[in-house]
Amino acid sequence: MSGKAALVVVDMLNRYDHEDAEPLRDSVRAVLPTMAELIEQTRAAGASLVYVNDNHGDWTVGREAMVDWALGGEDPALVEPIAPQRDVPFLVKARHSAFYATQLDYLLRQAEVERVVLVGQVTEQCILYSALDAYVRHFELVVPRDAVAHIDEQLAAAALRMMERNMRADVVDAGAALQVLTG
After folding, report:
1. Is residue 117 classed as helix, strand or coil in its secondary structure?
2. What average pLDDT does the segment 136-142 reach?
3. What pTM was estimated for this model as a whole?
4. 31: phi then psi, degrees, rounded to nearest 5
5. Distance between CA atoms of 30 and 144, rounded to whole angstroms?
């Protein structure tokens, strides 16, 4: 792998009040410390960091409102450690992929990013679709298995295998992902 890398945090602002929230919360609890550390280390190293979050149908929402909305949900402890700082790019999305109908591709190209490290939720949904969109845009792809959360463990494992096999993703642990981000 070569070139600049960016950490893209997908859909971590969530109220956890939906039908399949319980298994997701359990998975987020397991990966949250690792994810928060990866975000902190990325910031400390001055590497590129971008948040992309579902707008949950509200096209008037921005960073502050989205953070407040998520903190008002079922489990604010799952939001506080990873809430985006004001100096970090924050994009809203309407569908599963972090790239679909967002400015993410443009933002990454402007920063001369060649490698995308994806963290967040849900592995078998938005992470998978974002990985595919990164791949078809010719970004090299890294997914730290210990920094992505799932609803269904078996589907998540299959999604990681698909990313590795079909999208040439490096599925690694967070330590290896941090090496990619900080060089």
Report:
1. strand
2. 98
3. 0.97
4. -100, -10
5. 13
Task: Give pLDDT tens digits for 145-164.
Answer: 999 999 999 999 999 999 99
In 3D space, the residue among 176, 157, 180 whose CA is nearest the CA of residue 27 turns out to be 157
Residue that the structure tokens 């975000």 belong to? 39
Q: What percent of the chain has pLDDT over 90?
A: 92
Task: Kindly give the pairing relationship between strand 148-149 and strand 113-121.
Answer: parallel
Q: How confident is the model at residue 3 (pLDDT cuts 50, 70, 90)?
A: confident
Q: Dihedral through CA 169, CA 93, CA 136, CA 107, nearest 10?
A: -90
Report the distance separating Cα 45 and Cα 56, nearest Å: 32
Asked whether the beta carbons of 139 and 3 are under 8 A apart, the reply is no
DSSP helix/strand/coil, 70: helix
List of residues 6+ apart from 3 with CB closer than 8 A: 112, 113, 114, 115, 140
Pairing verdict, β 140-144 and 4-10: unpaired
Take residue 87 and report the two structure tokens written for it.
Answer: 């100096």
Going by DSSP bridges, is the β-strand pair 113-121/90-93 parallel, antiparallel, or unpaired? Answer: unpaired
At 122, the amino acid letter reads V
Q: Which two tokens stand for residue 133?
A: 């969109």
The DSSP H or E segment spanning 144 is strand 140-144
The SS3 of residue 58 is coil
Provide the CA 178 distance to its chain's centre, in angstroms.
14
